[in-house]
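Format notes (please read before filing issues)

Several people have asked whether sequences and structure tokens are stored in separate files. They are not. Every record keeps both together, in the order shown below: the sequence lines, then the token lines. Line labels are part of the format and must not be stripped during preprocessing.
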Amino acid sequence: MVQATVVRGAAFARKSLLARKQRIAGLAASLRRREDELQPASSIEQRDRGADLEPFDVFGQLQAAEARELAEIDLALQRIASGTYGQCQVCGEAIGGLRLRAVPEARSCMGCAARL
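Then the structure lines:
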């Protein structure tokens, strides 16, 4: 019975993670289009370029956050495929089902996460 629950939880997590990955990919494409639209004009004076580059800093930070989230999703999908999904990578105990529903890419149980 416990094994069936774990398998159902992993299947739900896989579906949820793949959907999030697809949403992030869509957002990333939108960000790239907007970034291209904001390319600074070559005729802008040098002192004005600093103000125009600020949006690129924001885009860079968003892209870095998106890359980190996609990496965490891919790692969770690998854990599902290898059969280690739901096991805390710190203490080896089971990660609670509620935590996995809230954060399907979680690597650690609540106790270990609080200590990190």
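For reference, the curators noted about this record: DSSP finds four helices and no strands in the chain. The chain has a mean pLDDT of 82.
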